[in-house]
Amino acid sequence: MKRSFAGMLIPGVVAAAAVLSVHAIAAEVKFADQGVSGAEIVLGTHQDMSGPLKGWSVPVVNGMRLAIDEVNAAGGIDGRKLRLVVEDSGSDPKKAVLATQKLVEKDKIFAMVGAMGSPTVLAPQGYLLDAGVFQLFPFTAAEFTFKLAPGAAQDRLKFANLLPYVESTRAAVKYMMQTGKYKSPCLLHQDDEYGRNVLDGLTQQLEAMKIQPVGVATYKRGASDFSAQTARLKATGCDLLVLGTVIRETIAVMTEAKRTGWDVTVLGATPTNVPEVPQLGKENVEGLYAAGYLQVPDAATATGALKDWLTAYDKRFGIPANTQAILGYNAVMAFATYARLAGKELNGASLLAALESGKPYADIFRSPPIAFSPTNHLGSTVTQIQQVKDGRWEVVSEGLTF
What we know:
Residues 1-26 form the signal peptide. This protein is of the alpha/beta class. It is 41% helix and 16% strand. β11 (383-389) and β12 (392-400) form a beta hairpin.
């Protein structure tokens, strides 16, 4: 009887293939190979701890610290404890560059994990990758965090686990246009990398549906008065307003729309899908739709490991967990998962091989699992639609793609 060896796992062959794979990676990509000792693994992150995104960054760092406590209490990564160094960018790209240089050159970090904001992640990313340091799971869903340029070996050091703005906007717009029978969509977006990604998502999906937006308006980061933009878009006859905004801008736009009697359906990009929007916006944001990929669990109904996590967060920080806390926690836990998969000889090449192995990371929050390959450094594109009802987000539809 003939036997095929194609599907057999032969230990010696598998081990040899793994070694060859790691060596091939090492020859192609330059690694800093710092921040890993027999006792610890040093991770870095730059966050907005003093500027307009402080409300995002503080819970993100809390979630990261909770994950580090959990990993270290369980013995660390093959006996190595995780140590996190946090630098404040203040949402300023120039400060983010200086923070990154300090983390790489002085703190000797092994990887940058969960850095905050599109412009502040983009500004130092070239320096970081050229230095041979991983850019892992930043808190921006812009394409530059995962898109691999042909021939750019150092791009393989960047991985994204957030739902990307372009893809999630496309999926959400497709769902809304098909189910709501809207005919005149329009867009208001922040004038930066994030906002332009939302614009691209809307434009691409409408082109696929042979529909034209009736209006597009922009605003500068930090703006607080949206009366001119809302008046202009209202005048177009827009019946579906898509927002490339963040927390306070979302609330301000919807408040202005209600004040002027503009009865329009509003769809937010993923940064609007956070608890603070209904908590602070109250009746002004009732009915808001948003793209998202996880719902913050309710402590009153949670059970098992999820309830334990929510209790531990509340006890540690004195406040309930929110979406940002979950994302921060997941960033560190995903790193820990792939660092363990890399084996005891943890270095740049072995971690890259683990990340590109296709093995999934699944969290305790029922989010879609993430997984990567040598040609795909984006973890997932599965989208939900959620809506604010009675002051809280509820899932309307899930498992969406475009």
